[in-house]
Amino acid sequence: MRSRDLMAEATAYLIEHSMSGAPREAETLLTEITGTRREDIYSKDPVIPEDKVKLFRDAFRRRAGREPLQYITGTVDFADMRLKVGPGVLVPRPETELLVAEVAKRAQEPKKVLDLCTGSGCIALELERRFPEADIVGTDVSSEALAYARQNVSELESVNVNLMHGEMFAPVDGMRFDVIVANPPYIPAGEIDGLQPEVAKFEPRSALDGGTDGLDFYRVIARKAPGHMENGGLLALELGAGQAQEVVTMLKEHGFRDIEVLKDYAGHKRMLFCRFKMD
Ligand code: SAM
Ligand code: GLN
């Protein structure tokens, strides 16, 4: 079949299943799944071999069922890296790209960096590019997520990112860091089912669920991070919408200072930076 006929078939199918942005979704799937160049779809209108047509039809049907596009293509672009993702790991978000960029502005040649709740490894791997001299540890409780992180570490030929499996700070017992970054699960448990189906039905609940009020992980971090930070170290956190005030209060109670909150592109207070200083 010709590429333009396939575009028409997929777009109609996606519209029938109430997908917004159907033509663009169809185009992305056609290029990613069949390896056709975007500009060729319209100009050369190449014949797509039958085996690829079949893969493409599977792909747009999955998408019509609201599976995340990135699970179907198996990749996501984060900063200037292309990462592997799929069922079992959270798809890194643009807000998190912003978090990493802001960490890079504030950290001064860190020697040791911890990325708690690393998921695909996106934060750890981007920080390695920014700070090639640093030793970076990424930890996660999910073996499934870590399997993607391992693949990303290997494909990007990372040398300084060390992945460890376990609950929060358990794998880094006795270690101290100049920078600790985390994008922990922060959605209040009762709100997950109301999120868009791509998130609620397909992304791992353990990557989203922050307990009843969404703040469980911040409580652990406020309490335990001081025992893992060098004097003057930087703590950087991604936050859920509406959580900044409570997290700030929690951190102050545990001795953090110079607290700074920044907004994301949508105007939500999304990131927090602070320092731990011993008197
Ligand atoms: N850092 C990645 C990113 O920004 O795309 C993933 C963030 S995702 C919101 C949260 C991650 O925390 C998931 O990968 C999940 O497996 C992990 N996680 C959940 N509970 C955990 C725990 N108790 N200890 C360590 N990691 C945990
Ligand atoms: N940013 C994700 C979402 O809103 C949630 C990730 C998280 O809990 N840290 O879908």
Summarize the structure in words.
By secondary structure, this protein is α/β, with parallel strands linked by helices. It has two domains: 3-65, Orthogonal Bundle (Helicase, Ruva Protein, domain 3), CATH 1.10.8; 83-276, Vaccinia Virus protein VP39 (Rossmann fold). The protein is built from eleven helices and nine strands. It has helices at 3-16, 22-34, 38-42, 50-64, 69-73, 94-106, 122-130, 143-155, 197-200, 216-224, 244-253; strands spanning 75-78, 81-84, 112-116, 135-140, 161-165, 177-182, 229-238, 256-263, 269-276. The strands form two sheets. Strands 5-4-3-6-7-9-8 form a seven-stranded mixed beta sheet, sandwiched between helices. Strands 1-2 form a two-stranded antiparallel sheet. Strand 8 and strand 9 form a beta hairpin. Helix 1 (3-16) crosses helix 2 (22-34) and helix 10 (216-224) runs parallel beside helix 11 (244-253). It is elongated and about 70 Å long. The N and C termini lie far apart (71 Å). The mean pLDDT is 97. The structure holds S-adenosylmethionine (SAM) and glutamine. S-adenosylmethionine is lined by residues 90, 92, 96, 117-120, 122-123, 139-142, 145, 167-168, 183-185, 206-207.
